[in-house]
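Standup notes
- DV: blocked on the single-chain target, sequence here:
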Amino acid sequence: MSTKLQTNVALLTLVICSLLSSSSNLQAKEHPNVLLILVDDLKPALGCYGDSIAQTPHIDSLANRGMRFEMAYCNQAVCAPSRFTLMLGSHSTSTGLYGLGSQLRQIIPDAVTMPQHFAKHGGYRTESLGKIFHIGHGNHGDPESFSVPHFKEKVIEYLEPASTDGGQLTREEAYFTNQMLGQIKSLPRGAAYESPDANDEDYADGRVAAETIERLQAAKQRRQSDGTPFFIASGFARPHLPFSAPQKYWDLYDPASLPMPQHEDLPANAPKVAGKRGGEISNYKPVPTEPNADFDDELKRNLIHGYYASVSYVDAQIGKVIEELDRLELSDNTIVVLWGDHGFHLGDLGIWTKHTNYEQANRIPILITAPGVTQPGSSTKQLAESVDIFPTLSELAGLPIPSGPQPIDGVSLVPVLQDPSARVRDHAYHAYPKRKLGRSIRTERYRLVQWKAFDGKGDTAYELYDYQTDPNETKNLVSDHPEVVQRLTKILSKYPAPSKRNR
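- DV (later): unblocked, structure below
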């Protein structure tokens, strides 16, 4: 080969490489950024969902930018499994990941989580801050999911010494830091709420917001320099117990105007396995420790006050993040999702916290803003599940629809984002494991719950609730509507047999 020819070949090679590189960068730049906001224990106690008490101007403003899902449901009302369903697109009954201590990589070693999918197929830099995967109760999260080490912050946090009996390690602090797990009951209980005169960043959620802002600033520079899109998952702890929030957020509410529980009895004719008394909340003082103890009105009001104050506190932190997204001029090319991992009972049915198959524990907020796709201020009654977020974001980002290796139970909600009247499913599915496994079908009007032993042996119990005639779930209507039970049981029977419980 002549020298001239060699030179021409070399030049041609450089041109091709340059074009390929430019094409690659262009392709990366075409992918929208993703900001995934996770909020712990957040039910739709938000102004945008019609809660007249809630002071949530920033989340309400976010809702006005995109679509609000009126009937969105988690797939299991407890932290770790719910977050697995989000990140895997898989029901807990498909994976066997039912518990707080469930270890993802022990059960599904080669699982491809949502951030891993975005990194692999879209060249995204994936980052996580705050509470994303559950860490605690023997669980250490999933470092494999992200491009850089996780920014961990506290879930259980106190500023006032009296809240921790003078600075001692409390039961829930031990749980969430994987300390002394075999000696929990020997530890003191922390306070259920506190309201110090403090700055936002004195608590973890304020620090998560500040760090998210710094990550967004760096992400913009990175995108400008090399075209790398970002996938940032930012997780906020409040309104998870304890209701620790600066005094100014408590001051937003008049305690006398707060909504007190109206129906505190378990549903009539409901199977015993379906109910709950005590549990998680009993690990906080001054809550009575006896499972069936009555809460006095002052305690109820303080707990409800603390929940709403915590919601307003986290609303302010999310507002700071969205304000920075706007300031950086990233909003036009960033998909924003706000998701609550499960709901929360505030004394309804006599239940506090979650861990049930009832409406208050399972209905969640899902807000999606997708520039060029969602109509500002839109809403839909399309039933949605946590598992739907993974395929939805993948389609919005122009990535392949996820295919596993774990079972993908979610469906893309993009047709609904484009047209609120579109329908991609006619029910939502969720489950909760106790002595028996409760599997649920939620339609726009009804919820059916089937309680059955994991091995299929023994009696099967059912619950049926009609939210058109009985929105507070006061009575199990199984015997009143056998035709509805039959129809919904037929739907449930089409689901795969549930996986065994794994720890």
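- Follow-up: The chain is about 30% helix and 15% strand.
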